[in-house]
Amino acid sequence: MKTKFRETLNRANEVIFRYPMILVMALSASAGAICIAETERSEITAYIKFTICSCLGISLMFALKMLSQRIGKELLLYISGIVFLSGFYLILPDKKSGFTEIYIYTIAVTALLSHLLVSFAPFLEKDRELRFWQYNKNLFINTFLTAVFTGVLTGGVELAILAVDQLFDLSFHSRVYRDTFFVLAILGSSFIFLLFNDKGLNNLEQDGKYPVILKFFTQFILIPLLLIYAAILYLYSFKILIHWELPRGWVSYLVLAYSTVGILALLLVYPLKEENARSWVKIFSKVFYYTIVPLIVLLFTAVFTRILEYGYTEPRYFVLLLALWLLSIVVYSIFSRKATIKFIPISLFLFGAFALIFPYLNAFSVANRSQKKQLMNILNQNQLISAATINFSKKVNDTIRNEIADKFVFLAERKQVEFLSKLLNEKDRTELANHISAGEFYTVRYDIQNKFSDVNVTVKNRPYETNRLVLVREKQAVELENYQYLISFYRYSRDPQTLNEDEFELKDQLTDKSSLKLILNSEQEVDFGPQIIRLFEENKNKTGNVKIPEIAMESDLGKYHVKLIFNEITREKYSEQDAASIYYENVYILIRLK
């Protein structure tokens, strides 16, 4: 027992001294996740950025470590990795609201690239084909074992803490369980993975017997799945030809899934294709790429059907890029006499890097140009441009209005302020710039929708004139009177506001429960919903924009007296059977001590 303990301790020491940078990144990611969970929502942006970069650093530093074991220059490679992560940290937004989908795509693709780099970084030289396969096979198995070990360890430790808590009445705070999970799930899993790879590259690339479990998994699970996928896709292709109809958009994901599973199966059985006894592997290896050819035609047809109708977005760009990558794999594998399996991860890495950083043709530049063109086409086709700006008073269908609003949000999230501002008047430009600066992109959508004053609403393919009443406050300026403080809430940005160590929260349920509650410290509240409903009842026979002297209501709340002021508030009803929707863009709250 003592000997085993000493061996385990020695292996742990070897891991710490052999992989210090990977463990530093894992420890940083664990600490960052804990800080995010324990910090106020308005202050967590720096921790989010730090945690994201640390998580990326785990795989990046492992890739650089494997490369250094092949070529040396470990310190230089680590410095380059730190420089990259520092640069990545700086390009991430400084506000939580700034983490739009463009950054989600950037982070996801970068994470994929860092893992692909792990798969091929030590094998850029020629004539290492079988070692390349052994290396990735061992990484694959070690990753699976790491997941199992981490799951058991985390569950066991959490249950042990729970048992101690319950049996000895210690009343642990919930953060103990949460923080333990973060440490074991991130730092613990990284350490366990490194324990499996403690000898490094030389051990990972050594020849070994082909695992029986992989052969079973490929022969009896993956290949039958491929046959099912192929049958479905070919039957669907025949249906398209018979009915002469365009393919549905989601068929592209099925084709990509079939291709991915097939390529994975080919990689898993790669060493067996040289054995004469494995004829089924040889047949599968030769036939598979030919079966993809008709499906690639189907894939490109489905992708371009969506692109030609709605233009490029980042997801459509990436699907098209994957289609091109798949085409390159098929052409290379069919026509190359000395095809290497290293081409698969290396080519995918290059395609991914191209999508992120290539000037003018990267995913974000293409999507921006395409959606700008789509927006201008919609405006021109519906004759909504007047004196170079949008004519919001012209009658439009609600689907056109919503399309325009969606394009505005898409481009606003990508900071295309200059382009969008040219389509608006001076006042609207200022509002748009303020919303984009504050990260209030949902407000942009409803702001644009509300600017159209004459909308033909379609419900279940039947036109209805919407019953829409907008109460507009005549005064634009907000008078502070004898109030000491002013805070504001926006429709889709409802983070609690802090004042004198007190927290104010606005809970909007106007549409569902005719309730608009201002809550102080999660304990005291006042409901302004009935007063808002009363305002609409007083103007129930009116439609359109109705100016009234004031849209304000006040009440005591704890030690404060508060007054809510709206610039405008809207009620929409599409038919007699539908419930009315009530909403506003922003509300000012004046506060004074009683």
Primary descriptors:
594 residues, 14% strand, 17 strands, four-stranded antiparallel β-sheet, four-stranded mixed β-sheet
Q: What does this protein structure show overall?
A:
This protein is α+β, with helices and mostly antiparallel strands and 594 residues long. It has helices at 2-18, 20-38, 45-71, 74-91, 101-120, 129-167, 174-196, 201-204, 212-243, 251-268, 279-310, 314-335, 343-357, 363-381, 398-413, 417-421, 426-438, 441-451, 510-513, 529-538, and strands at 385-386, 389-390, 396-397, 455-459, 462-465, 467-473, 485-490, 497-499, 502-509, 515-520, 524-527, 544-548, 552-557, 560-566, 568-573, 581-584, 586-593. Strands 12-6-15-16 form a four-stranded mixed β-sheet. Strands 7-17-14-13 form a four-stranded antiparallel β-sheet, with no helix packed on it. A four-stranded antiparallel β-sheet has the order 8-9-10-11. The radius of gyration is 30 Å and the shape is globular. The N and C termini lie far apart (71 Å).
Topology:
Layout (H helix, E strand, L loop, with lengths): L1 H17 L1 H19 L6 H27 L2 H18 L9 H20 L8 H39 L6 H23 L4 H4 L7 H32 L7 H18 L10 H32 L3 H22 L7 H15 L5 H19 L3 E2 L2 E2 L5 E2 H16 L3 H5 L4 H13 L2 H11 L3 E5 L2 E4 L1 E7 L11 E6 L6 E3 L2 E8 H4 L1 E6 L3 E4 L1 H10 L5 E5 L3 E6 L2 E7 L1 E6 L7 E4 L1 E8 L1
Parallel strand pairs: 3-4, 6-12
Antiparallel strand pairs: 1-2, 4-5, 6-15, 7-17, 8-9, 9-10, 10-11, 13-14, 14-17, 15-16
Helix pairs in contact: 2-3, 2-7, 3-4, 3-5, 5-13, 6-7, 9-10, 10-11, 10-12, 11-12, 12-13, 14-15, 15-18
